[in-house]
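Pipeline run #58 for the internal structure catalog. This entry was flagged by the ingest filter as a single-chain record with no existing model, so it goes straight to prediction. Upstream metadata was stripped on purpose; only the residue string is passed forward. Reviewer on rotation: M.T. Logging verbosity set to normal.
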Amino acid sequence: MHYTEDPLMEGPRRKHRLVLEAVGTTTSLFGAEKKLYAAGCEAGDWMDPRQYTGAAHHEGFDQHMAEVQQKVHRETEAAAAEQDDRPDQEA
């Protein structure tokens, strides 16, 4: 399941946002000028300083978010397993 459709990613998606910083321009063969960006994650745990167009950074950020999704699922499963190991607290 893609991270944008995963209910467990609702909170992390708010913390992890793609941030693009304009760092220059490039000119195509036909003379069109395109902005180049460095990219990072608003949560501060991913950065790509290479100068790419914005669309190229989306692929790297998508990979980062897939890794975040895997981590969220591991933590959720570990918490559920820990909860199952505890004796019932009701008196």
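catalog note: Residues 3-83 form one domain.
catalog note: The two ends are 41 Å apart (CA to CA).
status: ready for reviewer M.T.
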